[in-house]
Write a structure and sequence with these properties.
CATH topology of the largest domain in chain A: MetI-like fold
Oligomer: heterotrimer
Strand order of the largest sheet of chain A: 1-2
Radius of gyration of chain A: 23 Å
Structural class of chain C: alpha+beta
Radius of gyration of chain C: 24 Å
CATH topology of the largest domain in chain C: Rossmann fold
CATH architecture of the largest domain in chain C: 3-Layer(aba) Sandwich
Shape of chain C: elongated
Chains: A mainly alpha (261), B mainly alpha (271), C alpha+beta (353)
Number of domains of chain C: 2
Number of helices of chain C: 8
Number of strands of chain C: 20
CATH class of the largest domain in chain A: Mainly Alpha
CATH class of the largest domain in chain C: Alpha Beta
């Protein structure tokens, strides 16, 4: 009896927490397709706000994808080989480098953005292009890629596999291609999902780094929250949800599969 | 190419990117902070100048409150979810973790929908009490936003820690005659301490440095990130903004480093 | 058998020592020659430097300044492993989880640009040789320990290496399987006739597989010799105790006899020492009726170990003696017995190690 009471109490509490998290999201989704939020769902369902968002902000959505995939490309090209090098080399230097690249996680994005602005603000063309945003996103997401790959290396004795391939005559580059990368795949995939998700939603850095011509989705969101009617802001948020849900689901499925192994 | 030079060339791109877009800028930031009229003393201003100090205290209090409440809420929910199997559990977990990918701006909007001028809480309160309750644009709204942001993260950490908990410990305590509360107090909670420290530090550091939520809710909430932002963009006071952000970065880094040395696991702030 | 390269290369390790970056001295400067086609076993407890020696020969570690490694007289010290054309079986096997069994076996050939058809033929040959037919398309995580061991061996041999290096290849297996595979491995190595260097801490493996054994201890070579030499004429106490069971007796010597509490044990003639450290193998001690031998003692315990019985006897020397007796010998604990040891079975060791 007492256990049932405790169970019921915890259950209701957890439901309340879920409601706190989900009710506003649900409100936002419904507001995005309602004719008038003030009058409620009775006023009818419409896609006009979504269309309006698309007309106003399609560019931000596109740029967000461009930045996210460019960030992914850079983190893959620089992060995966680096994770291998850090793992194989080990020792103090590897620890210092890992510590350094993880530092951006411990420092508020605002501070990193300020630092980038103060350093490269004078390089007009770079400052004005989306590459400036890319630089910030790469610094912010790199640790996730490197650590995710390092975590896999920690579980599969990559050093011996590397030596095994070497004993069969494979050159370092060949070993990296044939043995290291295929076996690091779970980490590379998990890291990639993380990098894309984070880049798509990044605001703290991007707000400082963007220009009126280089607005990403979260910048557009902030803009719509400040200046558009609630229905438009909601519709825009709805589009963002639709974009990230597949990523979240993929991440979850992936984590489950890894756990079952 | 020898193995050694191959390993070095693997590391090179990362080192170059990090040096160019992180190390160099951070050095520049620290230097800029000392280039104002006060020189290096600018770094003390965050502690000495009354306006800045008040903001700092405000921010720390807010972050501490966020951390405390998040830990309590997430521990109750996380332990419940990890310990019981019931229909709908997976859906409930999905609901609790979905907001993980929300950036701060979106969280701000969620709070506006809850407690803003057209918000649910105001709507309900005006129907029940005849008075519209609106607090999204104040520090209470920000507090709620940080809770929204932190709860999913901390729940996940606690659930993972509970899963790893050795049930033998609890059974041993019960075999020695400890009741359910005593088991929780003497065995379970102490075993979860590292998870509390790790996830609490993340919640704290995030609440100290988060910018998106505050920015969405209002530009006049008196917290450190907003102060830095206004100093930089509105007052064009680069040196002060730089000094303040170095200070803020130091605080968050220190908290995470301390937590890591205590809990032994990697700890990082979330955006 | 189509190992076209016949018997592989001779190996010469000259003045190779190894100090790791953290200052650990893993191997003192050592010199070692391995003949073409020979199977050499590096034997010793963990941390004795045997694996470091193997990795230096393989090209996975660089010896300290001044050390050289020669294959067939050619200096290969600066060549990394991928250029040495050696086959290596790792303790953990290092099979690539991202490739099938066949792809693992064929990888070295693929790297060498061997055409697909030729590769397939060679893989089939090795699959048959190592008794893993039917497993070609399996993933590595679908194999048992013994199967993995065979795949690792097939993969190492597929490239027709000049030298085959095996780093504790049987250690990861359970005892029964280890015994069976040891016999199989022995036949395979003899059939291949390739120069083989085999690292192990298991003396039974070393005895069965090695043409010669190098016993190592604390980064130095304690003794090199054939299994029989190592067993019957160990050069020092460490080797005597590490290989098989041994009674080590320190005692004064009087006109060609060890003077023990249980009597006087004659030595080979011509020995003129005041004090000796002697080794007597348990199976060389014969148990006879009390009074019928120069030595006597009291039986402490009798344990039956299957093919023989192991007795512990006190009162003969300072430390209790271990004796292996045939099961036909009837003894009970507490009984007084005589002990007969041929003078040739008493091996004298250096006083100090």
């Amino acid at each position: 009896m007492r256990y049932r009471l405790i169970f019921a109490g915890q259950f209701v509490f957890t439901l309340a927490v879920a409601a706190f998290l989900m009710v506003p999201a649900a409100l936002s989704i419904s507001a995005g397709v309602t004719v008038s939020y003030f009058r409620g769902i009775r006023s009818g369902v419409t896609l006009q706000w979504i269309v309006q968002v698309w007309e106003l902000y399609a560019g931000t959505i596109l740029l967000s994808f461009v930045v996210a995939f460019a960030t992914l490309a850079v983190t893959l090209l620089a992060g995966v080989p680096a994770a291998y090098a850090l793992h194989v080399r080990g020792g103090r230097l590897a620890r210092v480098v890992e510590e350094l690249i993880t530092l951006p996680l411990a420092i508020p994005g605002l501070a990193i953005a300020l630092a980038l602005l103060l350093t490269y603000g004078g390089f007009g063309d770079f400052r004005r292009s989306w590459l400036f945003i890319l630089a910030g996103h790469v610094i912010f997401t790199m640790p996730f890629m490197v650590r995710s790959v390092l975590a896999v290396f920690g579980t599969i004795d990559i050093k011996t596999l590397d030596e095994g391939a070497a004993s069969l005559g494979a050159s370092p580059w060949r070993r990296f291609r044939d043995v290291i990368v295929p076996n690091a795949m779970p980490g590379i995939l998990a890291g990639s999902l993380m990098v894309v998700t984070l880049s798509l939603g990044e605001f703290n850095l991007t707000w400082m780094l963007h220009t009126p011509l280089t607005k990403t989705l979260p910048i557009g969101l902030a803009d719509s929250y400040a200046s558009m009617r609630l229905e438009v802001a909601s519709a825009y948020t709805l589009i963002f949800f639709i974009m990230i849900i597949p990523l979240l689901v993929a991440m979850q499925l992936f984590a489950d599969r890894e756990q079952r192994k | 190419m020898s193995q050694k030079s191959f390993v070095w060339s693997c590391l090179l791109p990362l080192v170059m990117v990090t040096a160019a877009f992180f190390l160099l800028p951070m050095v520049r930031l620290v230097v800029t902070g000392a280039e104002g009229p006060q020189g290096f003393a600018a770094y003390l201003a965050i502690l000495i100048e009354p306006r800045y100090r008040a903001t700092l205290i405000n921010t720390v209090l807010l972050a501490a409150a966020t951390t405390g409440v998040t830990l309590i809420v997430a521990t109750i929910a996380g332990m419940f979810l990890q310990r019981h199997r019931f229909p709908g559990r997976a859906v409930l977990i999905a609901m609790l973790t979905f907001p993980l990918a929300f950036p701060g701006v979106v969280v701000g909007f969620m709070i506006i929908l809850l407690a803003g001028r057209q918000g649910l809480i105001g709507d309900l309160s005006s129907r029940v009490f005849g008075e519209k309750l609106v607090f999204a644009y104040s520090i209470y709204g920000l507090f709620l936003g940080y809770l929204y942001f932190s709860i999913p993260r901390v729940i996940l950490t606690i659930m993972a820690a509970v899963q790893k908990l050795d049930t033998g410990l609890e059974e041993a305590a019960r075999s020695l005659g400890a009741g359910p509360w005593a088991v929780q107090r003497d065995v379970v909670l102490p075993a979860l301490a590292p998870a509390f420290v790790a996830s609490g530090a993340i919640a704290f550091a995030t609440a100290m440095g988060a910018f998106g939520t505050a920015f969405t809710l209002a530009t006049n909430i008196d917290v450190l990130p907003m102060l830095i932002y206004t100093e930089f963009t509105l007052a064009a006071n680069f040196a002060t903004a730089a000094a303040l952000s170095v200070g803020l970065g130091l605080i968050t880094w220190l908290i995470l480093a301390l937590a890591r040395s205590f809990s032994g696991s990697a700890v990082a702030a979330a955006g | 058998m189509s190992t076209a390269n016949g018997h592989g290369a001779s190996v010469s390790v000259q003045a190779c020592g190894k100090t790791f970056a953290d200052g650990t001295r893993a191997l003192e400067s050592a010199t070692l020659d391995i003949a073409r086609g020979e199977t050499l076993v590096l034997l010793g407890p963990s941390g004795c430097g045997k694996t470091t020696m193997l990795r230096i020969i393989a090209g996975l570690e660089l010896p300290d300044e001044g050390g050289t490694v020669l294959f067939d007289g050619k200096d290969v010290t600066s060549e990394p492993i991928e250029q040495r054309n050696v086959g290596m079986v790792f303790q953990s096997y290092a099979l690539f989880p991202n490739m099938s069994v066949a792809d693992n076996i064929g990888y070295g050939l693929k790297v060498r640009g061997v055409p697909r058809q030729e590769r397939a033929a060679r893989i089939a040959e090795l699959v048959a040789l190592t008794n893993i037919a039917g497993l070609e398309n399996r993933r590595i995580d679908q194999l048992s320990g013994g199967q993995r061991q065979r795949v690792a061996l097939a993969r190492a041999v597929a490239i027709r290496p000049r030298i085959l290096l095996l780093d504790e290849p049987l250690t990861a297996l359970d005892a029964a399987l280890r015994d069976r595979l040891r016999g199989e491995l022995n036949r395979l190595l003899r059939a291949l006739g390739i120069t083989t260097i085999y690292v192990t801490h298991d003396q039974a493996e070393a005895m069965e597989l090695g043409d010669r054994i190098v016993v190592m201890r604390k980064g130095t070579i304690a003794q090199i010799g054939t299994p029989r030499e190592i067993y019957f004429t160990p050069r020092n106490r460490f080797v005597a105790e590490f290989i098989g069971a041994a009674n080590i007796i320190e005692s004064p010597v009087e006109d060609g006899h060890l003077v023990l509490s249980g009597g006087r044990q004659p030595l080979r003639s011509g020995i003129n020492l005041a004090v000796a450290v002697a080794m007597i193998r348990p199976e060389t001690i014969q148990v006879v009726e009390a009074g019928r031998a120069p030595l006597s003692g009291t039986i402490d315990s009798v344990s039956f170990v299957g093919d023989r019985q192991r007795l512990v006897i006190s009162g003969t020397s300072r430390k209790p003696l271990t004796v292996d007796a045939p099961n036909a010998v009837q003894v009970r604990p507490g009984e007084e017995v005589g002990l007969l040891v041929a003078p040739e079975s008493v091996r004298l060791l250096p006083l100090e190690d």
